[in-house]
From TrEMBL:
Keyword Transferase (UniProt): yes
Domain RNase H type-1: 18-148
Listed InterPro entries: RNaseH-like_sf, RNaseH_domain, RNaseH_sf
Keywords: Nucleotidyltransferase, RNA-directed DNA polymerase, Transferase
Keyword Transferase among UniProt keywords: yes
PROSITE patterns xrefs: RNASE_H_1
GO MF annotation: an example: nucleic acid binding
Protein name: Reverse transcriptase-like protein
Length: 152
């Protein structure tokens, strides 16, 4: 079973064509809040990793890093020709805001939220699922590596 996937969701034929469907694990990390931050993304198609990305984000908060990791994942997925994506995050805030459970109150997070919403419109389906931190080790490793690796 794939972490974070209960198997109860039926995505029908959308996942039958693994060329157009994928799963992404994302994470943002910040040393201090705010502090040096990074984003990590792992995308898999048909159970195989098709890409791992990390990005140094400069000095920012953990919540901003989480949103930027999602934006990075969606942009990479679009470049890969993915039309259906299930995203796994250990950020409860990100999950709840994007699923309409929490309101987005701060302007800088609203701007990132709006970017995500615009990117989501370019897919047939984007699902954001919450997983436990221990189920997100690959993306977490990349995000932590990115926060300590400023671009030179």
């Amino acid at each position: 079973m794939i972490p974070g996937d209960s198997g109860s969701e039926n995505h029908g034929d959308l996942f039958a064509d693994v060329g157009k469907a994928a799963r992404a694990w994302i994470d943002g990390a910040s040393s201090g809040n705010p502090g040096p931050a990074g984003a990590g993304v792992v995308i898999k198609k048909g159970g195989k990793t098709v890409g791992e990305w990390m990005e140094y984000l400069g000095r920012t908060t953990n919540n901003v890093a989480e949103y930027k990791s999602l934006i990075l994942a969606l942009r990479k997925a679009l470049k890969l020709g993915i039309e259906v994506i299930i995203v796994y995050t250990d950020s409860e805030l990100l999950h709840r805001q994007l699923n309409g459970i929490y309101k987005v109150k701060t302007p800088h997070i609203r701007e990132l939220f709006d970017k995500v919403q615009a990117l989501k419109k370019r897919f047939i389906l984007v699902r954001i699922n919450h997983i436990r931190r221990e189920e997100n080790k690959q993306a977490d490793r990349l995000a932590k590596k990115a926060r300590s690796s400023p671009a030179r």
